[in-house]
Amino acid sequence: MSNQRTPLRSRSSLGNYAPSSSTPMNSSTTSTKPRINITDLRRPPSRQFRTDSSRPGSRPGSRPGSSLGTSNISRPATPSFSRNQEPYTGSISVSIRPNPYSMNPGQQGPWQIDPFTNSISNTSDYASFNFDNVFPPHTDLTNREVYQKTCSDMIRNFLNNGYNGTVFAYGMTGSGKTYSMKGESGDPGIVELAIDDIYRKIENDNIAKEYNLSVNYLEIYNEKIIDLLSPNNASTMDLKIRDDPVQGTKIVGITTPSISSKEQLLQLIKKGDINRKTSATDFNARSSRSHSILQLRLASIDLGSKTEQFSTLSLCDLAGSERATSSAERRKEGAFINKSLLALSTVINKLSSASTSNSPGASDHIPYRDSKLTRLLQPALSGSSLVSILCTIHLGSAGNSSNQQCISETYNTLRFAARAKDIVINVEKNATTSYGSADSMKVIEELRRTIEAQKNEISMLKVSSFSGRSSSQGSSLVSENIRIAELEADNRVLKEKIEHFTRLIDLHKTETVILKNDALNDILGSGSGSSQAMMANLEDFYKRVNYEMEEYKSYIQHLETQLRNSHQSNVINGTNKPQNDDINFMDSDMEAVLKDQEDEILQLKELLKDKDHIIKTLTKTSKIRRLGESNAANSSKHEHKSSSFRTGSPESPIKDKENDPFLREFNISPKKPKETLDITETSGITFVI
Ligand SMILES: Nc1ncnc2c1ncn2[C@@H]1O[C@H](COP(=O)(O)OP(=O)(O)OP(=O)(O)O)[C@@H](O)[C@H]1O
User: Domain boundary residue among 395, 419, 434?
Assistant: First the structure.
């Protein structure tokens, strides 16, 4: 069980950010054939795109495997996003952008683009695809136009409505992912344009709001997560991913500075870009050898209602898929890149099947854990974020055998895009929480530190007072004793404060655990049914949690056995390890898998602890409930109508719940629509089953 939300199958109320109509497309796109202004094709030296004629790619014999692989099939573009719709059900926004330098000027390539119907078709086998946007291969198409159509609505929802947003660029090496995300001088990319919008909002918002922005920037290089903003150049450190009930996944120990100005943010990103691994390959003079993910976390604080809402924007520039290249080092990187992109495709395929299939269980297992990339994209792909995918492609030229590889890669990218377009996600905006709950933890921490310091002082004073002093020092001894007594009194007060805060936080945690748990919340919040029925449901739920815990335990046992076996076979095989590079590479791969398994075991154990917490809570509250009911029974026998443990009155079940000691203990009111629930969270201690 994980905190992923299963994509919905229904497409009935599709709604995603609408392509903005405010930016008209270039008028030269009226033709169904892509037209290129030949005078614009001055290709700067850095834009070299070389194809490798010695390794021709195989031309796919069949049309794209998805339902789109036939001509004239028109795929509905993502429908308009209705701003009031929440939760937000719809497909992922998918756009295609060709690298304008990937076809020979004046030569008709194998692909025909119609930007008005947003379709791209192959002129020889008539395969046709429709997406939210298919951009023409024009050199004068700016990143701003691409941003307006693919991301700006998402950014608006990220800024104004508490939605998370994820943009990722996907495509073959050299097809223009980094160009689109990062831009070049005079043509800022999606990252900078999004930051412009964020700061425009922060600086111009005159409502009583305050914003805190923090950032982290990482790359996944050879399946290692590397902190690109690390101050101590820990370039080889492999950061760990943890499941997080609030954010989905969390990178342990990643540098996350708070940002005070746009300039500071751009400076940091620039620093991260310098740290990112790029190298010249056979295909791209400056090829990204890693996937990069930039995360901007915005806290919007409403000073009037003293609430805050967090939303996260993730901007990902993936490394490009590629065939084997001539350098061994690049080949090794390429193997990791292709492996993780394959994992991403598999996840997309499964999600797409789950969204389109009517057979129950089609969404059973989505292998997010197969790569770090899919682990990190898991929250976004499983419904915690609006998603926009920009697929970049090479168009190639017809009759040119050296371009066969591009054609096959373009097919792959379009198939990936078509699958992604099939996915239907159900996205909820982030809950509004009471401002400052995280501060209580800080206060406790400070109090603890003060106590520790005072304890040290006390023991030092005690030591010095017992270390043989003369009678002339008697007065100072007395004052030291007074000081000790004062400190001990202070200490007691501080301890009481800590206990008080801990109790508050514990209660808060329990409330959050319950409110975050849909099943439990449904049971507790349903406005109908008797309290006996609710107890029965709770007991049912309790049994289920117990059952799931048993499942977890046996799964952990299974993983541990697997791990032991693998360790043993490693030891046995260790004596005659082959020297071959590739096999050593497989060994390190194996070690990575083992490491992942160990991590998974630790995470599952953590999850068990959380389950223990919920079981303890339920046990405790069942006792309170029973006590309440027996008191209420006694009271009604003695006709003490004012009893505080009164049970259900048939005419007003809702009122009954308001008076319910069980519900009062957790501050849960009868079921309200989700957005009006006052969910307060303590930092990092919420739990979702
Ligand atoms: N739309 C575009 N307009 C102008 N130049 C482009 C465009 N797309 C790509 N280029 C140029 O093509 C070259 C390769 O692009 P880029 O580095 O963005 O590819 P990539 O997909 O990020 O490759 P890799 O996966 O190897 O990192 C660059 O020199 C870039 O300037």
Answer: 434
Å from CA of 232 to ligand 1 middle: 31
Ligand 1: residue whose CA is nearest its atom 11: 47
Q: Give CA separation, 658 vs 238, 262, 389, in Å.
A: 50, 48, 46
**What CATH number is attached to the domain comprising 331?**
3.40.850.10
Task: Please list every protein residue whose CB sits less than 6 Å from any atom of ligand 1.
Answer: 46-47, 99-101, 171, 173-179, 184, 284, 286-288, 319-320, 392
User: With bands split at pLDDT 50, 70 and 90, how would you rate the model's confidence at 150?
Assistant: very high
Residues near 112 by Cβ (< 8 Å), separated by ≥ 6? 32, 33, 34, 120, 121, 122, 123
Give the residue, by CA position, lying nearest to ligand 1 atom 4.
Answer: 139
Question: pLDDT: is 349 or 436 the higher one?
Answer: 349
Q: Which residue from 658, 661, 634 is spatially nearest to 645, judged by alpha carbons?
A: 661
Report the C-alpha gap between 550 and 440 in whole angstroms: 34
The ipTM, to two decimals, is: 0.98
* Nearest alpha carbon to residue 601 among 242, 223, 224, 237: 242
C-alpha of residue 140 to centroid of ligand 1, in Å:
14
Same domain, 219 and 121: yes
Highest average pLDDT, of 150-154, 237-241, 619-623, 652-656, comes from 150-154
The amino acid occupying position 322 is E
Domain count, the chain: 3
- Which atom of ligand 1 lies closest to the CA of 175? 21
19 assigned to some structural domain? no
DSSP string, 113-124: EETTTTEEEETT
% of the chain beyond a pLDDT of 70: 57
Same domain, 450 and 373: no
| Ligand 1, atom 20, residue with closest C-alpha | 174
Output 538 or 234, whichever has higher pLDDT: 538
* Spatial separation of the C-alpha atoms in residues 651 and 507, rounded to whole Å: 31
Q: Whose CA is nearest to atom 29 of ligand 1?
A: 47
Beta-bridge partners for 300: 211, 309
Q: Are residue 365 and residue 494 in the same domain, yes or no?
A: no
Mark whether 560 and 661 lie in a shared domain: yes
The answer on pLDDT for 421 being more than 80 is yes
- pLDDT over 70 at 170, yes or no: yes
Instruction: Decide which of 597 and 662 is more confident.
Output: 597
By most ligand atoms within 8 Å of CB, the mutation choice from 277, 284, 325, 389 for ligand 1 is 284
Nearest-CA residue for atom 2 of ligand 1: 99
Task: Give the residue, 201 or 102, on which the prediction is more confident.
Answer: 201
State the first-to-last Cα distance of the chain, in angstroms, to the nearest integer: 7
Which two tokens mark 684? 């990092």
The token duo for 425 is 């996600």
> 286 C-alpha vs ligand 1 centroid, how far in Å?
9
Ranges 44-58, 420-434, 491-505, most confident? 420-434
> Is residue 166 within 8 Å of residue 316, measured between CB atoms?
yes
Most confident of 99-108, 198-207, 503-512: 198-207
pLDDT at 436: 62
Segment 616-645 mean pLDDT: 58
Domain shared by 423 and 452, yes or no? no
Taking the centre of ligand 1 as the mean of its atom positions, its distance from the CA of residue 14, in whole angstroms, is 33
Give the separation between CA 384 and CA 368, rounded to whole angstroms.
Answer: 15
Instruction: Single out the residue in 434, 460, 479 at which a domain terminates.
Output: 434
